[in-house]
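so my prof wants the structure for this chain in the tokens format not the other one, which i didnt know existed until like an hour ago. anyway here's the sequence
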Amino acid sequence: MSSPVVTRFAPSPTGFLHIGGARTALFNWLYARGRGGRFLLRIEDTDRARSTPEATAAILRGMEWLGLEHDGEIVSQYENAPRHADVARDLLARGKAYKCFASQEEIAAFRETAKAEGRSTLYRSPWRDADPASHPDAPFAIRIKAPLEGTTVIRDRVQGDVTIGNDQLDDMILLRSDGSPVYMLAVVVDDHDMGITHVIRGDDHLNNTARQMMVYQAMGWDIPVWAHIPLIHGPDGKKLSKRHGALGAQEYQAMGYPAAGMRNYLARLGWSHGDDEFFTDAQALDWFDLDGIGKSPARFDLKKLENLSGQHIAVAQDAALRREIEAYLAAAQLPALTPSQADGLERAMYCVKDRAKTFPELLEKAEFVLTSRPIVPDDKAAKHLDTVSRGMLRELTPQLQTDSWDRDSLEDILNRFAEAQGTKFGKLAGPLRAALSGRAVTPSVFDMMLVLGREETLARLNDAAAG
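here's what i got, hopefully its the right format
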């Protein structure tokens, strides 16, 4: 029986949750959750100068927005430093590593000379096979003994087999002379101790993998399944950067994209399931596999994100949309909805969520129920409220004093009224839109009347008729 899948996301807390990091987290989450496994979170906070609690909080908020909940406690790499150092000393005791007394100046001088002479700058320490009796009483680093011959093969589920000549591998430092462990050791020890079975990460880490495998092999630990995913590029094919637009996941929340649309889009960014573009979370969990990840960099396309977001808004549950829009307003630092506005928005959701690609677009369509009397028409709407149309509204209002406030009854009243006026309903729609919403472009007049209710509709019509 195979062991359960355990994946991890391991960001450095030096800034927001980058779109690339968000996709990496999503891929790990989908792979683990889709197989009944565990998805763990480790904060790689060993760089004390750049790691901040604020950045950690920003990463957690981004993951929370995307719905990527992790299992268990968050692991701090910095707090595990004593364990990392113990592993380095264990390798030293077992002859898999050695003490290196070479100074930074000696190493730098060697590399400078080698470069000038056109030789390899790969440093080979003279202390690798030195007699311990010759060791000076001085600070030392602990270096692993890299294999000197043959090849190391990285069996990668995305990149295929990647072969590296062992003559390209140096005796990597595990523990610096000040006793602090290096990142390359910390990653391996943490992944092993956390029981990580699959390492799914950006392909910028691929070059580190052969060196990390040395630690696994020296310790006799199981090597995880590797899956190095291509980076995300901008539309111009260059590495995604600020010039391409927003980079942080939460920036997209503040721009009004729904989390489900973002998950769908990020999943499709470098992974595919046939020709399927739009899919639900349940389908993504069922379909996602490492075999569907391409080798080429994915290109970020805002139009595709908008398109998918619109589709997810259209099929979302109204109550869930209301909650997410309230969270969007907070993220965008916009005024919160009052309870009455939020209730009205939820009532209106059925007629405003179609064809809205973002929450600002949806709220623009819902303005009629979010605003309050007196309704001040904009310039376009005001053109529909001339003397003739105001007179029509005055005549119409008494006919709407009906107990039957449903679509069929309202359509019947308005169509009969238009006929009696010797016009078509279309001519009546403009003044009604202006009176009910103050806008020229709105949901259907009937939908607005149903959402607003009889009392509010009549009050707005009376206001407009009075001019």
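also thought this was worth mentioning. Residues 19-33 form the longest helix (15 residues).
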